[in-house]
Design a protein that fits this description.
- By secondary structure, the chain is α/β, with parallel strands linked by helices.
- It has 2 domains: 162 residues, HUPs (Rossmann fold, 3-Layer(aba) Sandwich), CATH 3.40.50; 119 residues, Riboflavin kinase-like (Elongation Factor Tu (Ef-tu), domain 3), CATH 2.40.30.
- The protein is built from 12 helices and 12 strands.
- Strands 1-4-3-2-5-6 form a 6-stranded parallel sheet, sandwiched between helices.
- Strand 2, helix 1 and strand 3 form a beta-alpha-beta unit.
- Helix 9 packs antiparallel against helix 10.
Length: 307
């Protein structure tokens, strides 16, 4: 997959099959669009193009709202988009000036003049331009003028799988990682580097990897203990993860700590991928490290049963 920062280096394709959007999470609804994109490209011997925007439009349009959390970092999204057959990923810088573009300007300047779109595939509620004025009906009406075909993934096609980014966020905020996995078509993941912590887990027989997440915009599941699988150097290990402030040891900053059940060796500095499988329990203050240790033994037994 080729990645373009803007369109300066983008060369017109023989047959460009295009879609656009933020595609946060690349969930099952997004995957329907991407698979249709790939199908058309194969039949027409063309290439697929996805136009996305960064910074996220909400960061530009509503800078006063500091609570934006994303289902996928840019790096995670790139891997997923390539997996689903995107040949060209075009990143348009989203600015206040760009947000004022009319749908007609976006379509003519980017889709027609610069990408030479032959077929455009969009989701049923997708709209272009200022105030989201460019609807599917508008595109259909002007398709001959624009010189490309337009195809919409219908509401029925998307509704039958009952998925949206909002539903996934709500599930994760409730600790319901199993529902999030159903909507995504895969376990929810976070990626990060192992950094030095207080090493309290080691003192009670449960050494943990303290994980620094790659992006502060990444949405973390609800605080608590989870059964997870962890990828280390392409190998997969069962594990349990605690997200929260660790009340038993008077923690006051949120941490992410993973105890790998079958790993031996040094994890410091390594990049880990954590795949969330199930929620085990809420965070608790156990009063002592010994009481915490006893609970961790029970947690470990549950993880062994689940994984």
């Amino acid at each position: 997959m080729k990645i373009y920062e803007g369109l300066a280096d983008f060369l017109p394709l023989r047959y460009a099959v295009v879609t656009s959007g933020t595609f946060d999470g690349v969930h099952l609804g997004h995957q329907k669009i991407l698979l249709r994109l790939k199908d058309i490209a194969l039949k027409k011997e063309g290439e697929t193009v996805l136009i996305t925007f960064w910074p996220h439009p909400r960061m530009v349009l509503h800078p006063e709202k500091k609570n934006l959390r994303l289902l996928s970092t840019f790096e995670e999204k790139v891997i997923l988009l390539e997996k689903f057959g995107v040949d060209h990923l075009v990143i348009i810088p989203f600015t206040k000036a760009f947000s004022q573009w009319s749908s007609q300007k976006f379509i003519h300047t980017i889709l027609v003049d610069q990408i030479h779109t032959q077929c455009l595939v969009i989701g049923y509620d997708h709209k272009f331009g200022k105030n989201r004025e460019g609807s599917f009906d508008y595109l259909k009406t002007h398709a001959l003028e624009f010189g490309f075909k337009v195809e919409e993934i219908s509401r029925q096609d998307v509704d039958e799988i009952g998925v949206s980014s909002t539903k996934i966020r709500k599930a994760l905020e409730q600790g319901d990682v199993k529902s999030a996995a159903r909507y995504l078509g895969r376990p929810y993941e976070i990626n990060g580097k192992v950094v030095h912590g207080q090493q309290l887990g080691r003192s009670i027989g449960f050494p943990t990897a303290n994980i620094q997440v790659d992006s502060e915009l990444k949405l973390l599941p609800k605080d608590g203990v989870y059964a997870v699988r962890v990828v280390v150097d392409q190998d997969l290990y069962p594990a349990m993860v605690n997200i929260g402030i660790r009340p038993t040891v008077q923690g006051n900053e949120k941490t992410i700590e993973a105890h790998l059940l079958e790993f031996e060796g040094d994890l410091y500095g390594k990049q880990l991928q954590i795949l969330f499988i199930d929620f085990i329990r809420e965070q608790q203050d156990f009063g002592s490290l010994e009481a915490l240790r006893q609970q961790l033994v029970l947690d470990k037994n549950i993880v062994n049963l689940l994984l």
